[in-house]
Design brief:
The chain has about 150 residues and is α+β, with helices and mostly antiparallel strands. About 50% of the residues lie in helices and about 15% in strands. It is built from nine helices and four strands, in the order αααααββββαααα. The strands form two sheets. It has a two-stranded antiparallel ribbon with strand order 1-4. β2 and β3 form a beta hairpin. α1 crosses α3, α1 crosses α5 and α5 crosses α6. The protein is elongated and about 65 Å long.
């Protein structure tokens, strides 16, 4: 999936929650509206998409105030001290988290800023057709079993 396709999906989600891409684009980039496809193409060049994904207007709409949203927290491994003073390694499996806080967009902006790839972070909130159609090959199935 290309960055342009991902941005279009993100914009569709934000639009369904009230984000006005045309108004945002004309206020932040150009007074002339080139059309949605051309505007997204322009944003994908030279890292300009960061202005959109870190925009407070976009974030407020994407993580709609008070709306319940499900997202997947990825697996993680970390070390900590147990009660005996020994260092133990904790392996957490991925899990689904649900949120309905009013200012959840602020939390997600901070998390997105700390992530290696903000687009990948945002993509976790959009189940794609690839996610639903994934079928492991026979070789992957056998290697997972044995």
């Amino acid at each position: 999936m290309t960055r342009k396709e991902i941005l279009l999906m993100l914009l569709n989600q934000a639009y369904s929650n009230g984000f006005e891409f045309r108004r945002w684009f004309t206020a932040n980039f150009s007074t002339e509206w080139p059309g949605a496809e051309e505007a997204v193409s322009l944003l994908t060049t030279e890292g300009r998409f960061y202005a959109l994904v870190f925009s407070h207007d976009f974030a407020r709409a994407f993580w709609k105030k008070g709306a319940q949203m499900n997202f997947i927290v990825p697996a993680s491994t970390y070390s900590r001290m147990n009660g005996k003073g020994e260092v133990v390694t904790i392996n957490r499996k991925p899990f689904t988290r649900r949120t309905i806080k009013a200012d959840v967009w602020k939390y997600h902006l901070r998390q997105m800023a700390m992530s290696e790839d903000p687009i990948r972070y945002l993509k976790r909130f959009l189940p794609t057709q690839e996610d639903f159609n994934y079928q492991p090959s026979d070789a992957e199935s056998l290697s997972a079993v044995g």
